[in-house]
Structure formats: C-alpha cells, structure tokens
Write the structure tokens for this entry.
Amino acid sequence: MNIPRADAARRTALVTGACSGIGLAMARQLGARGYSLVLASNRADELEGVAAELRARPGAEVHTIVQDLAVVGAAEALVAEVDARGLTIDILINNAGMFFFGEAADADPGRAQAMLQLHVATPSLLCTYFGARMRARGRGHILIVSSISAWRAFPGISYYGSSKAYLRSFAQALRCELAMYGVQVTCLAPGATATGLYSSTSVPVAMATRLGVMMDAEAVAAAGLRAMFRGEAQCVPGVLARAMALGSTWTPQPVVDWLRRRAPWLRPRP
C-alpha cells in the first residue's frame, strides 16, 4: 500500500463518514498500519459495528463519536468530544458526504441545507480547529475529499457539484496557508466510486463497477492516503476519472446546455 506505519509524530487519525465507502476503507487501511482511529458518524449502530471489526486487530485503538455532521454546531461538538477524551489529532480526514440528484429549484430546502452544512461548513471549521493545533505543533496531515464534479458545473447536481468545488478551492488555499508550518493538506477528488452514496438513487452501482465506470472504494482510499502521506496537493485516482475531469474542463457550456435539453434525465421540467 506504500502507506507509512504510525509513529510518534503521526499516530491518531480522525475520519468522518467512517461507516461505509471511502471513509471505511481509509479507516481499515490506517488501522492495519498501526494508527489509532477516531471514527465519527451519525449512524451509531453501524459505527459500533465498524469499530468492533477494527478492534479485532491486536493492539488496535479505536474511538467512536456519534455526531451528525450535517447540523449547525457539529464541528464544535466533535472537537469538544475529542478534547474531553484527551485525544490529539495528527491526521484529519474530512470525508463525510451525501448526494442527491435534482434541479436546485426542486430541492428539498432541509436536504439542501444539510448538504451545505456537511460539505462546506463542518469540514471547513474542523480544518480551522484542528489546523490551528497542527500549526502550533509544526506537523500534521489534512485530507479533504472533493470530487471530479468540482471541475464543471453540471445540471442536476448543482448543490453537490458546487459544494465539492468549494472543497477543492478551500483545500488549495488551506494548503498554501499551512505548508510553511509543516502541515500538509491534500485534496482527494475521485470520480464515481462504488459506495452507499448512491443508495437513494437509480444508479446501477454493481453494473458500473463491473464495467469499470466506477472505482472500488478500497482503491480510491489507498490512492488518497498515499497522496496525503507524500504531501501531494491533489489526487484524482484512476485514468478514467482524470480523463473525465480534463474533458469536463474543455467541454464548452453550449454543449452542456444542449445535453440538458436532449437527455431524458436532464430535461427541464414542463
């Protein structure tokens, strides 16, 4: 995996959205390399199931924090719980996410607000709180999970794509700010990945994975962790994802507008 083992300077990793998908894969891979884990999610039963699995490894140290990160005040509550347990976070992985299709004018306001809180406010504030502590110590790693949808505004995912574009931009600025203090910031921008993110949609995940359109979460997680420990600014795993990101950048807006009018799943509402 080319992921370094834990040592005195890199020992404890906080992973948000650790119950499934990329977050779970990262937790497993870090645990296998000896890192102490702090896993945060709003799904209590699933979180304990994951913790039980990871604790089965000899010498494993796994802390769980049940916290809904899509509500106002979530970052402060999570930091307070970390402090109450006397933990020092050496690695922050902002991975928690949600997804829905639909035009912005049709979005459920509560769901839209939750996505913005989960993708924008909470991860930003976690970077502020834990980034300040890493800066004071002169070391640390922050991994922010964005998406290739950050490269192009596209109809049907206006909330999702825009929030992921924010994360990409924020990671770039944060990296510039913290690099001189010895803190590395990396942006992971995967393409379509076979995770539970699409469970509430009609996306055929199993078929897409077999056809190679979607990547395996374990492979995406490994690529992201390698990039983080190498101090890379950005990681887009997979040749297809990189081609799609580049292609979307070059696609003229009139082409996107034409697709919206012609494609059945993107047609405007009557």
